[in-house]
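Xanthine dehydrogenase/oxidase
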Amino acid sequence: VFYVNGVKVTEPHPEPETTLLVYIRTKLRLTGTKLGCGEGGCGACTVMVSKWDKEKNRIVHFSVNSCLAPVVSMHGYAVTTVEGIGSTKTKLHAVQERLAKFHGSQCGFCTPGIVMSMYTLLRNNPVPDMESIEKSLQGNLCRCTGYRPILGAFRTFSASKNGCPMGDKCCRNKPSEDSKQENGEQQEVHLEDQTDSFSQQYDPTQEPIFPPELLVSKAESDVSLKFVGERVTWYRPTTLDQLTDLKEKFPDAHLVVGNTEIGIETGVKGRCYPVIVTPASVRELSHVKTDNLGIEIGASCILSDLVERLKGIVDERGQNPTQALSSMLEMLHWFAGDQIRNVAVIGGNIMTASPISDLNPIFMACGATAKFMLHSRGERKVPMDQTFFPSYRKTSALKGEVLISVRLPFMRQSEYMKAYMQSKRREDDIAIVNAALRVKFHDGTRKVEEFSAAFGGMAATSVLAQHTMTNIIGREWEDDLIDDVAQWMREDFCLEVNTPGGMVEYREALALSFFFKFYLHVKDLLFKDGISGEKISPEEECTKVPLGGNHHGSISTQTWHEVPDDQPEDDTVGRAVPHHSSQVQVTGEARYTDDIPPYADELHMWLVTSQRCHAHIRDVDIKEAMTSPGFVTYVDHRDVPGSNITGVMKGDCIFAEDKVTCVGQVIGAVVADTYAHAQRAAQLVKVSYEDIFPRILTIEDAIEHVSYYSSANLKVGDADAALKASDHVLEGEMRIAGQEHFYLETNGCLVIPKNEFGEIEIFSSTQNPTDLQLYAAEALGIDINKVVVKVKRLGGGFGGKETRFLVVSNPAVIAANKCGRPVRCILTRQDDMLITGQRHSFYSKYKVGFTKDGKLTSLVNHIYNNGGNTADLSLSVMNRAMLHADGTYKIPNVSITGKTCKTNIASNTAFRGFGAPQSLFIAEDWIQKVAARLGMPPEKVREINMYKEGDTTHFGQILTDFNLPRCWRECLERSNFEERKAKVEEYNLANRWRKRGISCIPTKFGISFGLTQLNQAGALVHIYKDGSVLLTHGGTEMGQGLHIKTIQIASKCLGIPVSQIYVSNTSTETVPNTAPTAASVGSDINGMAVKNACKTLMGRLEQLKKTNPAASWKELIMNAYNERISLSATGFYKTPDIYCDWNKETGECNGMPFNYFTYGAAVSEVEIDCLTGDHVVLQTDIVMDLGRSLNPAVDIGQIEGAFVQGYGMMMMEEPLINEGGSLITRGPGAYKIPGFGDCPRSFNVHLLKNSKNERAVFSSKGVGEPPLFLSASVFFAAKNAVTAARKHSNLSGEFRMDSPATVERIRMCCGDKFTSQEFSPEEFYQLLES
């Protein structure tokens, strides 16, 4: 028994393997809560749980990941989902309303989870500070917005909501005549002063009450429970005696409270644990007790509760004795998100025995003791020392024992302790290396009496640096100790090159760096405590403050060109109109593919994919799968009635037949009655292989084996001769890693066979309905007109759903055709990442010629990208890369060769930017190195070589309306670049182990599809008798605001309010032969098609308007109907004048491949920690030329989202494969995208004023892709900071830093005595590659 949104739910036979998420979505049909990852890493599934807490004697509310919480664990609790707090049918909750008004929802898939995280915070703290708001969102991810507008919306709930952070500089005090602006997060782009126009203020007294029945029956928490499912039995004992008895009876049973570890094992990996015991209701295990000597913490103490208790103890007893507790608090801040901290327990952290546990090193270093109990024997105390974790994922617990508690001693006089960790992402990430260090001195001296150093990430278990701990005893805490400890620790931790987890050199350097940080920390405390010795130097003072300072909440500005004063109120073009679906997205009412209600006879499909990257298929055995519960059928290539060959350039097959060419290639599919049954049956399919060699996985492998899909040349002038004549010639190379799309909604579809004339209907999350329609028809061997594809909306796309949808849609079509029943297939996050491809990795070897004054004379550039196992769009990606290889610079002589590599990894595909960001990035790399070679500021070199109005590009296109110099100058001015650059240099001189860098980067991005025939669009506009308008076009809505922009265009053309226009969905039965929604042209081509359709309609109505000019719109339409005038029109548009004559053998190229260019510039300032490689983005300023923006709020949201996505590409995200070709980085646990904490501290976006663009609808410009590359300003700012660090180590000259600039690369490129970097950068990168 539990409650959901105030409604009692009674489930007589609950299934222990069913999660709360599955239950509320499938049984209760509350689909607002989303499945994003299945491992508690994205927050899309967040709900609020409320319960009566006996210890606190009150009702408590906490957020949880419903994808991990078993539904049986909800007994006696009240669950609140996004549907339970507000609705468009009643009214929106204040959280929902403000998020919608602040444009904080784009694709909307992550939005319900974000809403519920904030809602839960408000239920516990109605007026939170920004630190609390940021902390509450640590467990949520968003791939669209860049986080800034979400933080802005939620800032309005904070204590500072009544004052603008800009103070006297607030835009309200100084209104601009030519722009509207948002100075500070409180204001919604300051369009209509909407921070004062909320329909409601937040009133915590109006929240729903806790169900009284659960208060009356709160004693039920003392009742033990047992639930028996299909495969699993779940026990909930309520006493320690019951718990230990069960554990002795079932010694292999897992003890589960938060299910944060086992939930991933069962849900994601498909494992089964027949007996689960939860000690969550055993009160003897949730205590926290203190005495004069230390603290005892019960094994079932919830981490979030523990944080509050530890804070109280620290405040009560003071800092010195509680240093171990302060270390725990610091580590718990970075541990996961609130959703995990609210259910995870300290015993789970210990007993999972993770080698990168954040807490176990603290326990080991402080001398903690664990208490176990065996039912038949009693208690046993075990010191948490080197023997406690005997091997990987093992503890010294005996069979049948239960962990009762852990006891930590308080620190004594002259004793100091601190913990450290470093991860790939600052928040909600597992550690690469963590450490806890403790030292005790002889009283009144600096002489070491005791020393402990425990590390995670340096072995298969958490370990003590025993050699160091022995040798340091008796030593004075002086500077000469550092080099000795470095030597001892290298002996303690000598990692092999092939050590699991990689990053060997970096991990060793981190261990040493952590000791050095601890050394400085203790040295400072000794001086403050009056112990003789030197104070730490001023340049080392920086290590005492958090990276980037104590800062919460960004102060940001957004500006744009104001619409004319005489523009009619109903004409919304140029105004910041909220997203078309913003309100239904914040309430969870927005429907995505997997939210479509199930059909009565619907089946579920699970793909069977290859486990080998290059092999012959010798046998597929489905016998065991056929006996699995719920099994219906198995489909493979033999069931394809049409063509098994599919995809772009017909390079894919629906099902592999006799050979597989990558891990994850689809071999077949299991169809079953439920999602869970399909998964289980698919795991029972046995495939036998015979490996084929060589395995070609990387670009280097392809070069070695001459494995290419294509080779192309692009030339102008005589590059080789110009190189010889140049004053200077610079040679370099660069690698740019791929990037996972990580759209929050995975690829999926629902296929419905009509069983009449071969018709079939497909609901999909594709960006490209027309190609899905084509591929389905070819697979079935039927005409295209019998296939209808419908797309309501996408939960993000970014190019990943432009072509690779076929890996799921085609098998589902075959399965539905075979079964004659609807088939649903939604990929898991892990499978989606494995099989659907990523952004292309690139490699470049270049030579650049230039004069002594910095003028470029020649470029020879050999570019390679990794296409994967099919060509897909890789050749087109390379073409765009070559066309952008000039960056923004005029080079008289150019020779570019582009080769697309054929490899044995999943086929890479389109991703926002489509090859241009990689190529632009390479260009900025050689610009930076030219500046370094000449000793010139990089900005100067960029300005000297930047194109000018009327210049011709290396592919023959003349640049007109070239606004880049304006963007560049305005960005430098708005950011106070020169002044801040001087301050950065001053900061770097004063600080040794923290450095700052600042960089300004321009961009030029060509707008159009590379394939000319794709530059067309259609639209269909219906006007109904009541005057309402139904608008249909060929584009799909994936959060980019395409629908609202086309509505605004139609509104302007028809002269009616946007409220009278509606877009239902995208369908191949209304607008045929559509181009994919991609290439940043969605608004351009579909908007023009809509405009043309509206123009046709208004032409028909013109005479009626002249006859009766006073008639209202509704009267006009009724008159037209009565006069039998058609109120339906199609519109069509094709982009004019574009062409490209490119001979890829000779390299000659002329024409106009792009309709126009979008320009921009960005300045970013970064601070790095030279000892760990960590960094923060202090400030980013962007100026973009978007012509006359159709919707400034939407466009600014696109700029911010693209920038943060690009930031991930260049600074954080790095897909990794093993030597067998299998992707290691699957799911948010292993693959890190930027989180809320990675948003620039100050994030300012300005749209260039007084710009125009006659080649697009209403003088606007495409915006989706161009801003992404501007995040290179962060990369080169970080590189500048690294350069400053290298100077301190007497390392000068050019150096190589590939992308992404991960913490590892930044740290190792800094180069100091802790990195053991006696090798060249080239040797370092060889180590990284290995």
